[in-house]
Amino acid sequence: MSIIDKQAMNWIILIIAGLFETGFAFCLGKMKGCSGTEYYLWGGCFIVCLTLSMVLLAKAAQTLPISTAYPVWTGIGAVGTVILGILFFNEPATPIRLFFICTLIGSVIGLKLV
């Protein structure tokens, strides 16, 4: 596998890692409003998502610069968490909030381009 193929694969891995970051934040949000067995089930899901996210980030960083991989990973997680918060936790979708999410996406794209 050539270095270009490895980098392309690691970008896909990085995106998946960012989605798992969103997943562990979602599980944390669900844990906030429950107790008993449900709390521990969401906690288990949190640990699984957290572990997968970190392992995949480490894998992607083998060929991608960490100065790009880490901000992209956190950006995916942040944007995904805000979207899930709006959809599932009744968080506000104000115009200014959406504006700043768009600027965050633009910043992450900018880092990739430069």
Question: What this model shows, in words?
Answer:
This protein has 114 residues and is mainly alpha-helical. Helices cover 85% and strands 0% of the residues. The protein has four helices and no strands. Helix 1 packs antiparallel against helix 2, helix 1 runs parallel beside helix 3 and helix 3 packs antiparallel against helix 4. The longest helix has 30 residues. It is flat. The two termini are 25 Å apart.
CA gyration radius, whole angstroms: 16 Å
| Mean pLDDT across residues | 94
- Percent strand equals under 5%
The unreliable regions are: none
Envelope shape: flat
Provide the descriptors you would attach to this structure in a database record.
4 helices, 114 residues, mainly alpha, 0% strand, flat
Question: In a nutshell, what does this entry contain?
Answer:
This protein has 114 residues and is mainly alpha-helical.
Give the topology.
Layout: H1 3-32, H2 36-60, H3 66-88, H4 95-113
Helix pairs in contact: 1-2, 1-3, 3-4
